Q: What sequence folds into this?
């Protein structure tokens, strides 16, 4: 393993307009036994947890028997998140519910600048029966559209309440907003677990509704490894040239004049270079792993874009596009 | 009249009671007014000690500030770096610092006075729009200190500037690519940080957030002191979570005899579900006393006009900026309004842009149709862009409005040039329209966003002049001095449903007065903001304003 895993806690932000099904999804995640989650919700009252599963409840924080913790954001979001980070408890994942009129990306940015966090995904929910109308609404259309701008994954909810034509219409409307972004159809009973990094819906999803498996998207990986270093300005240009089908890119990244490789984290068009956290050491100058949709262009085309930003001749190591790099949890 | 009655005599008493507009004597017993009139009318009654200390002064009902925040009391613990002069709770005129050099100098003085070398230096009140859109950079703040974290909070409270040390500690540099970290011309962060992510990071490395600290008795006392300096005897805190600690601080303060203001806190709807909110307000009401008045709720529908976050109807912002933000979804507002309306609670609804106002009017109309309620007095707060048609709807629905008159002076030029354009900027905060249509209205400061000073607010509504000297819609929207005084006394009390106990000097009401050197009705209208305020009387207790 070239880079060891750090202690950064992954963050997933759940966005979507009022009534999109965020609370239903959060209830589902809280009850799942897939990990110890800290879940920040807007309205405690909407959280529907069987009293038998609640181990403690102090008004602001609910502790569940499965180890999950649910906190009410109230009006003090920054304080609430700060408390979770300072509490000393290690969570497998922090899940944050954005407000129904809020922009989930604004919250997701926290995970890009807070060293103890890393951004896993922005998941935006859309009520299949309403999304077309909402996007056209003169009052809230711009708000709703903005919520999808940085989504990594869209869950089209309540599809079982509509016929195929209506679902397809909703799907194509959302896809037109964000070409290349995975849109997964769900019902109340087929909501996926948290994406495991590959944004692959939980297996339960496909098994319970065979009709939907046709629409399950595959994800492609791209691995890029070089010795040498990038010119920073050229690299910034290269990032802009990467296709939108590339959802995220992460790894060690050597910049000219820097003694040590830096950690690159890129989601959509947003990226940050930070010092490698303690416990992470890079053996290669440059080793980046990307995840894209199944429409991701050929690896050679992607390689060429980044190669243009290198400052010195390089020795190319072969990267296997289909081999999952365990070095990073993307 | 019993022996514990005190009769204050004054050169003139302007009562704001239309059936007895002027008097010279007011008798006070047990904190309330026993009688108002001439010496003959009052002193002829048996007993009563005459207190002649105001014989050369003019008494008015104590001013009522219908929209301000306890943050005014909190901010004055920090240095002020706004462009305009501002009076502190100690009564001192703190000069405005209208250039970067002057700001740096003010911060250097504050820095020198600090004893702990590691403590962060916070300052407040900066607005680049007031100094010719010049930006405050990290290099400017580095001239103050490179070893102490520094943060300057803008007047809007949404944007801050920090020095290089803070950026380094927060690991924000040229490779950071998030929306809230503004880059300078050199490709490095300029020091301006905004938005939730950058704020979160910066507050974490500073270890403290001066805007969310726990309320202390000192903060409340500073607020009360500012009120005395400005002649305010009833003041709102118009958006508060009302956490248990805050409720306890307010309870303790309001029960002190020497606490010199009546406090009207509005519960923030955002931190409660409507069911919880209704229950909480009902419970808090039970703890009301004569100087603490719970019972109203505050909803915030949109953002601010000068921040381009207000929601505007077509054609939107004059300079083409995209429409603003909803803080409550239009489709969610009716159910929230209905919940409080049905529970008999008065709503105060922040709407800056006219699209937000429209949505609020729709919600109140729906609630009033479903559950007709006489005399609800739901009040639109700010409501800066409403047109005549919207004022007519307010009238029909039985609503009040509290207009942000200070905006004409502080951001009128920005509204004329950038946000609204000439036509809409001329009817900004349309007090004249409200008057013609007959919507009960108040005017306010939104302190600490603009200075707490009802006489200045009245001056804005009377003169409608901007900070550059441009006059906006004076011919159609300006108030007379008498009308403006109504809007900072009895009519402001009406919007708080307290006009039966405060807002005028008449028998039965609390003995709350502002003591002035001059009668605002006798001076040139351009000078009413300059009238010297001697102090206040609250419930019969005399408090001379500090003069530092």
A:
């Amino acid at each position: 393993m070239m880079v060891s895993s750090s202690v950064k806690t992954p963050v997933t932000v759940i966005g979507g307009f009022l009534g999109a099904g965020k609370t239903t999804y959060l209830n589902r995640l809280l009850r799942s036994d897939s990990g110890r989650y800290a879940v920040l919700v807007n309205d405690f009252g909407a959280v529907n947890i069987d009293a038998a599963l609640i181990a403690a409840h102090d008004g602001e924080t609910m502790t569940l028997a499965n180890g999950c913790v649910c906190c009410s954001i109230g009006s003090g979001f920054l304080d609430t998140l700060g408390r979770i980070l300072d509490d000393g408890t290690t969570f497998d994942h922090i899940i944050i519910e954005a407000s129904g009129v809020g922009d989930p990306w604004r919250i997701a940015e926290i995970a890009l600048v807070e060293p103890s966090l890393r951004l896993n995904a922005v998941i935006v929910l859309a009520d299949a029966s309403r999304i077309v109308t909402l996007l056209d609404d003169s009052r809230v259309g711009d708000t709703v559209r903005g919520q999808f701008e940085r989504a990594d994954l869209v869950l089209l909810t309540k599809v079982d309440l509509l016929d195929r034509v209506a679902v397809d219409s909703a799907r194509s409307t959302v896809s037109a907003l964000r070409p290349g972004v995975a849109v997964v159809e769900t019902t109340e009973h087929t909501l996926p677990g948290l994406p495991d990094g590959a944004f692959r819906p939980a297996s339960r999803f496909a098994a319970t509704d065979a009709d939907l498996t046709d629409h399950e998207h595959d994800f492609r990986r791209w691995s890029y490894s070089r010795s040498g270093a990038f010119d920073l300005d050229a690299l910034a240009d290269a990032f802009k040239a990467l296709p939108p089908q590339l959802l995220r890119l992460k790894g060690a990244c050597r910049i000219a004049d820097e003694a040590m490789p830096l950690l690159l984290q890129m989601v959509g068009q947003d990226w940050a270079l930070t010092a490698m956290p303690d416990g992470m050491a890079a053996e290669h100058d440059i080793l980046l792993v990307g995840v894209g949709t199944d429409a991701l262009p050929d690896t050679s085309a992607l390689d060429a874009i980044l190669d243009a930003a290198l400052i010195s001749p390089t020795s190319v190591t072969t990267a296997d596009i289909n081999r999952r790099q365990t070095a990073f949890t993307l | 009249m019993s022996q514990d009655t005190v009769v204050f005599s004054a050169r003139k008493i302007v009562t704001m009671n239309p059936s007895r507009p002027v008097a010279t004597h007011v008798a006070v017993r047990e904190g309330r007014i026993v009688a108002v009139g001439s010496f003959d009318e009052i002193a002829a009654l048996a007993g009563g000690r005459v207190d002649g200390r105001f014989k050369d002064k003019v008494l008015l009902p104590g001013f009522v500030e219908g929209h301000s925040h306890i943050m005014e009391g909190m901010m004055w613990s920090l240095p002020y770096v706004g462009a305009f002069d501002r009076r502190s709770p100690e009564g001192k005129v703190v000069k405005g610092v209208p250039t970067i050099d002057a700001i740096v100098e003010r911060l250097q003085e504050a820095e020198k006075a600090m004893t702990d070398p590691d403590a962060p230096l916070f300052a407040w009140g900066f607005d680049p729009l007031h100094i010719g859109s010049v930006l405050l950079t990290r290099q400017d703040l580095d001239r103050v200190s490179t070893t102490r974290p520094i943060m300057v909070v803008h007047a809007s409270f949404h944007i801050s500037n920090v020095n290089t040390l803070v950026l380094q500690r927060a690991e924000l540099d040229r490779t950071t690519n998030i929306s809230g970290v503004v880059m300078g011309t050199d490709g490095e962060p300029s020091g301006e940080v905004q938005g939730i992510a950058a704020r979160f990071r910066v507050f974490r490395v500073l270890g403290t957030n001066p805007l969310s600290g726990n309320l202390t008795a000192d903060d409340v006392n500073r607020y009360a002191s500012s009120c005395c300096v400005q002649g305010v005897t009833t003041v709102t805190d118009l958006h508060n979570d009302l956490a248990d600690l805050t409720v306890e601080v307010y309870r303790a303060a309001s029960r002190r005899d020497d606490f010199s203001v009546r406090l009207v806190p509005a519960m923030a709807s955002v931190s409660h579900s409507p069911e919880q909110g209704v229950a909480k307000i009902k419970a808090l009401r039970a703890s009301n006393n004569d100087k603490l008045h719970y019972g109203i709720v505050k909803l915030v529908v949109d953002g601010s006009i000068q921040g381009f976050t207000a929601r505007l109807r077509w054609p939107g912002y004059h300079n083409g900026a995209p429409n603003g933000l909803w803080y409550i979804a239009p489709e969610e507002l009716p159910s929230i309004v209905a919940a409080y309306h049905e529970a008999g609670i008065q709503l105060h609804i922040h709407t800056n842009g006219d699209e937000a106002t429209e949505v609020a009017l729709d919600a109140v109309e729906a609630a009033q149709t479903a559950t007709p309620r006489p005399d609800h007095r739901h009040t639109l707060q700010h409501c800066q862009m409403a047109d005549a048609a919207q004022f007519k709807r307010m009238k029909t629905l039985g609503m009040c409005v509290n207009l942000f008159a200070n905006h004409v002076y502080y951001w009128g030029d920005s509204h004329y040039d950038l946000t609204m354009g000439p036509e809409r900027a001329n009817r900004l905060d349309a007090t004249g329209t409200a008057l013609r249509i007959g919507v009960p209205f108040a005017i306010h400061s939104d302190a600490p966003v603009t200075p707490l000073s009802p006489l200045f607010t009245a001056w804005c509504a009377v003169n409608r002049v901007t900070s550059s000297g441009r006059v906006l819609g004076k011919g159609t929207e300006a108030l007379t001095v008498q009308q403006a005084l109504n809007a900072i006394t009895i009519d402001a009390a009406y919007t708080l449903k307290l006009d039966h106990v405060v807002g005028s000097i008449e028998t039965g009401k609390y003995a709350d007065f502002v003591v002035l050197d001059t009668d605002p009705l006798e001076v040139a209208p351009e000078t009413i903001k300059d009238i010297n305020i001697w102090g206040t009387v609250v419930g019969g207790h005399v408090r001379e304003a500090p003069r530092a």
